[in-house]
Amino acid sequence: MIKVIPSEARSSFDRGWLRGSHSFSFGEYQDPYNTAFGPMRVANDDVIAPGRGFGAHPHSDMEIVSIVLNGKLRHEDSLGNVAVTGFGSIQRMSAGSGVIHTEHNASDTEEVRLLQLWFMPHTKGLQPSYETTSYDITALEGALVPVVSSDGGPRVATVHQDMTIYLGRLSKGKTLDFEQNEGRRMYIFSIEGKLGLQNEHVLHTGDTARVEQTSSMKLEGHEDTFYMLIDLP
Question: What separation in angstroms does the CA of 66 have from each of 63, 117, 125, 132, 215?
Fold first, then answer.
């Protein structure tokens, strides 16, 4: 089963210093029928104005992944971590038993765009932790590159949930087959371009798909495409 959600169906907002869209209930947008997809709880596409950001606020028992698409994001937390990430880097924070953090645009002149992704951990009360990793941007073409997973590994951030986040690019006319174990889910987001699914659906820029009961997925670039695929329990 493939449920396509067009970009215009997501909850969009513009607060001046922050604009973007929510794929699940978040903040002022509340829909009791759209609160999660498996352990995935939040998928926000955020753009933060120069010099602005989120002030200090707490989290607990949540795996929070930030994928910067352009610009620079500055992170600081109560664990003593300070880092700036840009395109090609991943930020992962395990809130665990509790952490306080801030996220700001590190530039005074350029916007920063990021995908903010939250996942429920497999265990509550974990020791809070934070890491940044970088992936090979040149390896994305015609491939699905793991950037976050439960197994971690070289250039892969470790998350406390049985899942993997992949990034990939497909040139127009190129195809790629993805296989996962039976009984799992896929969440697919077209960051840019048109992505075909199973010769039946097309995701335009900003569209998402929630996939269940389908362990094999044929991906096709209907035009040059940059996309994210998440393998979820």
Answer: 10, 6, 21, 10, 26
Kindly tell me the sign of the dihedral angle through the C-alpha atoms of 186, 187, 191, 197: positive
What per-residue confidence (pLDDT) applies to 29? 87
Of 203, 179, 206, 162, nearest to 40 by C-alpha is 162
Short-list 86, 49, 91, CA closest to 71: 86
> Looking at residue 28, what is its pLDDT?
84
CA distance 145 to 133: 13
Nearest 10 degrees: Cα torsion 190, 162, 122, 88? -50
77 within 8 A of 136, measured Cβ to Cβ: no
Radius of gyration of the chain (CA): 17
- For 145, other C-beta atoms within 10 Å of its C-beta total 18
Instruction: With H, G, I as helix, E, B as strand and everything else as coil, classify residue 8.
Output: helix
Q: Kindly report which listed range (18-22, 43-47, 137-141, 150-154) carries the lowest average pLDDT score.
A: 150-154
End-to-end CA distance of the chain: give it in Å, rounded: 15
- What is the arithmetic mean of pLDDT over 88-102? 97
> Which tokens is 102 given?
């801030």
Write the pLDDT tens digit of every residue in 68-81. Answer: 999 999 999 999 99
SS3 of 176, please?
strand
Of 201, 199, 137, nearest in space to 169 by CA: 137
Mean pLDDT, residues 88-97: 97
Q: How far apart are CA 147 and CA 145, in angstroms?
A: 6
